[in-house]
Amino acid sequence: MTALARSIDAPTRTVFASTALLLIVAGVCLPQFFSSAYLLQQLHTAAFLGIVAAGAMLVILLGHIDLSVPWTMTAAATFSTAYVSAAGGGLPGEVGVLVGLVIGASVGLINGVGVAVLRIPSMIWTLAVDTMARGACVYYAGQYVVKSQPALLMQWAGQGKLFGTVPVAVVLWGLLSILVALALKKSLFGRYLYPIGASETVAYLSGVPTRRVIVAAFVASGMCSALAGMVLAGYANQAYQNMGEPYLLPGIAAVVLGGTSIAGGKGNYAGTVAGVLLITLVGSILSVLQVPEAARQITYGLIILAMLAFYSRR
Amino acid sequence: MNHLRNRLASCGAALLAWSALAILLIGYFAVHPRGLTIDSLSIWSNQVVALAFVAMGQAIVVFSRGLDLSIGAIFALSNCLASVLVNGTPFEIALGILAVLGAGAACGLLNGVVVVFGRIQAIIATIATGAIFTGLALIVRPIPGGAVDEALSDFFTYDYFGLLPASLVLLAGAGALLWWPVKSGLIGRAIMAAGSQPQSAYMSGLPVHRARVAAFVLAGIFASLGGLFLGLQTLSGDANGGIPYTLNSIAAVVLGGTSLAGGSGSLIGVFAGAAIIRTLGGLLFFTGISPLAQPFIQGAILCIAVAIGSLRLLRVRNRLEVYR
Fold first, then answer.
1. Which of A121, A135, A256 lies at the smallest CB-CB distance from B298?
2. Which residues of A touch B118 (CB under 8 A)?
3. Do A119 and B260 count as a contact with CB atoms less than 8 A apart?
4. Which chain A residues have a beta carbon less than 8 Å from that of B121?
5. Measured between alpha carbons, how far is residue A101 from residues A72, A140, A150, B270 in Å?
6. pLDDT at B96 over 50
7. How many CA atoms does the CB half-sphere of B110 hold within 13 Å?
8. Under DSSP, is residue B80 helix (H, G, I), strand (E, B) or coil?
9. Which of A124, A187, A300, A107 is nearest to B255 (CA)?
10. B292/A129 Cβ within 8 A
11. Quick check: A2 pLDDT over 70?
12. What average pLDDT is seen over chain B?
């Protein structure tokens, strides 16, 4: 037990503790917070952000950032659902999921090549790529009458419930989380992320194929964005403009709240999960309390600041 | 001769940005249906100035090796405040302008204190403060609207003596008044030094902390000038208009030849960067390219422009220099 406690680092414990505390306080005031239906619904909401944050974390560990999340999500959702409606549903339509993933991987590849090979700062390069992805979506949406029809697989992932209770999106997020956590702990790719984030020069001199690892991390991030976009399209039954915008900054915030250093080289995946849960829970409590949007933004900002100030005390 | 060469090298990127802007401008006024008149020039300048203010503020933070992701939110908050405060009697208007600029400075001060003394990374700290500023802007103006004094608006959005666009004069004047005295003083040197070699600057006894806070405060003031100008231009306020300005300001900083690693660059170059972004949009509009294709072309040009910087890799002799 103590070994387990030690293996979870301080920020992760702090975020988990604050999440639990918040839930208990909320539950004492309003008993509905303890109902399993409410908790599952929160997990369902958290799943979309969680999938985005999983990809964002891989890139942030490298000391880079992926600002192309919003329109990668939207592009994957738009083109995959358009493919499904063009294919007329059925089995051929399910290929649409692959189309979305390929789009995500290609955007990630462009990001990765720009950052790792052309050495353009990720902050500006992924922003430029995001602008292009937006341009592609706008052009396509204006040129053709876009019918947005999610594949059955996407609908199932977005809306379905296992045994009538557990949302499939949550299971998907869980599986992805296990995969990412294992990759970070056991795979060469995951282990390489840390030294590259700490110092790419030293990693390169130690024989780490830094370029390939960076490109791979961006491709993984792009595919996570695409996955989130498609599951969200399945949930909403369509792709829509600006569907990705609300996930960019909260995704980064969740990763950093979980104790991953934005400068790279430090962080663990459990913290990211905790960060996602905390952000989702805060949002949900504020909306249950029917707090106006203005106060919600302010509280949200204050909580992130307070948590970060707490870490930097250590 | 050597001196001249050094000067050229240090502002080479800015010169490149200005050359690109010059070419774009020739194209812009060539395809402009009214050609180059003082009216079309004023309209062009009005389109550029709000973004230029925000980008120049962003650049000062970038000089000190920081980044302000809340700058669009400060811009939007100032815009909302202007739509409430900047009207009425001349005295009320003057007070209103002071209040708007003061709010910008206060936001910048909060950013600076949180980043420098709270020791939180600027990227993430300003995401959080940005949410706070957006919330405040929503309190000031829950839905877009409001009013800004029209006489003041006319004074700053037309031209002077049929020669100079008023907004350009405002931008140049405010930029010179705010940045020149700082730049040549101790704080300005410390801002640049903090961006270039933070440890050495600190060990040399430069006021690095104060300089970094000052950079954020200046950014807040520049952002609020931008928000005020948008208010003059649109005669209203909008709490949600900030995010594109944050992102475009970073793009303008890079296009203007300022390295995101800090320590180098110039506001003159950054102005060119902001102007390039806006001129490109206008140019595509007038050339009659399908409006639907314009965002894509704009994005592609932005990609190519930032990729040009990587040509320097061809000159790198030692592989290790690449990884710095």
1. A135
2. 305, 308-309, 312
3. no
4. 256, 261-263
5. 10, 18, 14, 38
6. yes
7. 21
8. helix
9. A124
10. no
11. no
12. 88
Which has the minimum average pLDDT: A85-94, A116-125, B310-319? Answer: B310-319
Measured distance CA(B171)–CA(B49) in Å, rounded? 7
Triad B50, B55, B61: Cα angle to 5°: 140
Q: What are the angstrom distances between the C-alpha of A258 and each of A14, A154, B74, B152?
A: 9, 29, 27, 49
Q: What tokens does A56 get? A: 């964002």
Give the separation between CA A253 and CA A308, rounded to whole angstroms.
10
27-56 in chain A: CB under 8 A from chain B = none
- What is the value of ipTM here, to two decimals? 0.83
Residue A192 in contact with residue A203, Cβ under 8 Å? Answer: yes
Closest listed residue to residue B27, CA positions, set B252, B271, B286: B286
**CB atoms B125 and A114 under 8 Å:** no
pLDDT in tens, B172-204: 999 999 998 888 889 999 999 999 888 999 999
**Contacts of residue A142 in chain B, CB cutoff 8 Å?**
291-292
In chain B, the residue whose alpha carbon lies closest to the alpha carbon of A299 is B132
Region for residue A124 given its phi and psi (left: phi exceeds 0; alpha: psi -120 to 50; beta: otherwise): alpha
Specify whether the CB–CB gap between B137 and B76 falls below 8 A: yes
State the pLDDT confidence band at B276, using cuts at 50, 70 and 90.
very high
CB A92 within 8 A of CB A86: no
CA angle B280, B286, B291 (to 5 degrees): 80
B146 φψ region: left (φ > 0), alpha (ψ -120 to 50), beta (else)? left
Asked whether the beta carbons of residue A129 and residue B303 sit closer than 8 angstroms, the reply is: yes
Is the pLDDT reported for residue A1 higher than 50?
A: no
Distance of alpha carbon A156 from alpha carbon A265, whole angstroms: 37
> What's the whole-number mean pLDDT along residues B3-30?
81
CA distance A61 to chain B (A): 14
Residue given tokens 């290929």 in the structure block: A95
- Reply yes or no on whether the pLDDT at B324 is more than 60: no
- The C-alpha atoms of residue B134 and residue B72 are separated, in whole angstroms, by 9
- pTM to 2 decimal places: 0.87
Contact A301 B139 (CB under 8 A): no
